[in-house]
Specification:
With about 400 residues, the protein is α/β, with parallel strands linked by helices. It has 2 domains: about 5-160 and about 345-385, Quinone Oxidoreductase, Chain A, domain 1 (Alpha-Beta Complex), CATH 3.90.180.10; about 170-320, Rossmann fold (3-Layer(aba) Sandwich), CATH 3.40.50. The protein has 13 helices and 17 strands. The chain has helices at about 15-20, 25-35, 60-65, 95, 165-185, 200-210, 220-230, 245-250, 265-275, 285-290, 305-310, 325-340, 365-370; strands at about 35-40, 50-55, 65-70, 80-90, 110, 115-125, 135-140, 145-150, 155, 190-195, 215-220, 235-240, 255-260, 275-285, 315, 345-350, 380-385. Strands 1, 4, 6, 7, 8, 9, 16 and 17 form an 8-stranded mixed beta sheet that branches. Strands 12-11-10-13-14-15 form a 6-stranded parallel beta sheet, sandwiched between helices. Helix 5 (about 165-185) crosses helix 12 (about 325-340). The protein binds NADP nicotinamide-adenine-dinucleotide phosphate and ligand X1H. Ligand X1H binds near residues 285, 294, 295, 296 and 319.
């Protein structure tokens, strides 16, 4: 069975054994309603936990988010209660804390988009797919917590709690679906990837290379440029030491065919000015603006119509939640590629940071700063809790 076996049903027997072996007073209450299974053995589920809550809307993560004590939530029918082991950091965590995702939502609300952990409780109908002790990865809200409840539909069974799985859920899925749906890559074309050594950029580089393209990737250090060579990038450009505009003009005078663009502002303008005839630019993000009050970064919009016309070029936006119909298939392809060693999934868990490994919920603050200081090589991941037996 594929380890992303959320398409299979009835994978394990119902948890009758757990139901008679539960120990705590709370579990007696659970049994009386019989709507969910909770595991209170050995390690026991505590009554309360710590979680990161957005209490004030701000793109400054430290200002917006505080760590609070809260009761460990109870999974409703169809839900899983997951003890988080690793959580993924996304550039857009600060768009979320700024309230940009849904301006009608007011604080307090929970932060964090994705995690990996152990199923420690489940609502009744989720037991046809999962059992206590399963390891799962999920793309869902409230991940920056010791325990998170997610719908079983948003979870994926994985073999072991390896942080590399966290690269697949958002970062690799974004690159895979955006390139499949919007890039229309042809062998021999030139692809420019910005923030190429980051969470999603590393996958855009690999998918473009797999399609037989010449790949140019931007980054901010020589160490990242060396990493880019190892994942197939033909021309890494450290934009701190080399002039991106003049390199593109000199080395790619015909222009680039496709741009996977994450930075915005000046870099977006340079990419637009260096597109080939029939070029396609995909707006994946514009991180250079996220920390500002508006979340935006000005671009040369006035010259955009003529630049597109002169090249018959197109610009499209891509936002992963709009492509959920492609998500399951993409994840099973990505998982298989990862399992067969065809995809390099690099994670950065802070081991080279002066303060060390991102361990514990409070490290999420440091991990967000680390990403916005441009220090990460690969996907930023935080280890929320060390491995524990159930
Ligand atoms: P990431 O690439 O792992 O980290 C961000 C990288 O951006 C840094 O390593 C740094 O790389 C650069 N950077 C950081 N702060 C910057 C700033 N203030 N100005 C300019 N560059 C900065 O992060 P990620 O989570 O994978 O996100 C990358 C981009 O993809 C973001 O724009 C994000 O919004 C977007 N994204 C979009 C979707 C979607 O559905 N559209 C999904 C996932 C991610 P350098 O060394 O290259 O400077
Ligand atoms: C419904 O579509 C969206 C799309 C983007 C709703 C919200 C957003 C959003 O908050 C984002 C966003 C999300 C993911 C990502 O990787 C990058 C970005 S940038 C962004 C945003 C930034 C500034 C704004 O004023 C509004 C949205």
């Amino acid at each position: 069975m594929s380890c992303f076996g959320f398409l299979t049903s009835c994978r394990r027997a119902l948890l009758a054994g757990h139901r008679v072996r539960v120990l705590s007073l709370r579990s007696i209450v659970d049994l009386s309603y019989s709507t969910h299974f909770m595991d209170y053995r050995a390690s026991s589920i505590p009554a309360s936990m710590r979680k990161m809550v957005v209490t004030k809307l701000s793109p400054n993560f430290r200002e917006a988010v505080c760590i609070q004590n809260a009761p460990v939530p109870t999974p409703a029918d169809g839900d899983l209660l997951i003890r988080n082991r690793y959580v993924g950091i996304n550039a857009s965590d600060i768009n979320y804390t700024a309230g940009r995702y849904d301006p009608s939502v007011r604080p307090p609300f929970d932060a964090g988009f994705e995690g990996i952990g152990t199923v420690v409780g489940l609502g009744l109908s989720a037991s046809s797919q999962y059992t206590v002790g399963d390891t799962v990865a999920y793309f869902g809200e409230g991940a920056f917590a010791e325990y998170t409840v997610v719908s079983a539909k948003k979870a994926i069974a994985i073999r072991t709690a390896r942080p590399e799985y966290l690269t697949l859920l958002v970062s690799a899925a974004t690159a895979h679906i955006a390139i499949q749906r919007l890039a229309k890559l042809k062998e021999g074309e030139t692809v420019l990837v910005t923030a190429a050594a980051g969470g999603t950029g590393q996958f855009a580089v690999q998918f473009a290379k797999m399609a037989g393209c010449h790949v140019v990737g931007t980054c901010s250090s020589n160490e990242k440029a060396d990493f880019l060579k190892t994942i197939g990038c033909d021309r890494p450009i450290n934009y701190k030491t080399e002039d991106l505009g003049s390199i593109l003009r000199k080395e790619y005078p015909r222009g680039v065919d496709v741009v996977y663009e994450s930075i915005g502002g000046r870099i977006f303008d340079l990419a637009v000015s260096n597109m080939a005839v029939l070029g396609r630019l995909i707006v994946i993000g514009f991180i250079s603006g996220y920390q500002s009050a508006s979340g935006l970064q000005p671009v040369k919009a006035g010259t955009l119509p003529v630049k597109l016309l002169q090249k018959s070029a197109t610009i499209s936006g891509f936002f992963l939640p709009h492509f959920m119909s492609d998500y399951r298939e993409a994840l099973s392809i990505l998982n298989e590629m990862f399992a067969k060693g065809k995809l390099i999934c690099t994670v950065d868990i802070g081991d080279l940071d002066p303060e060390g490994h991102f361990m514990g919920l409070e490290s999420v603050y440091r991990a967000v700063d680390y990403m916005y200081a441009g220090k990460n090589l690969g996907k930023v991941v935080v280890e929320v809790s060390p491995h524990s037996k159930l």
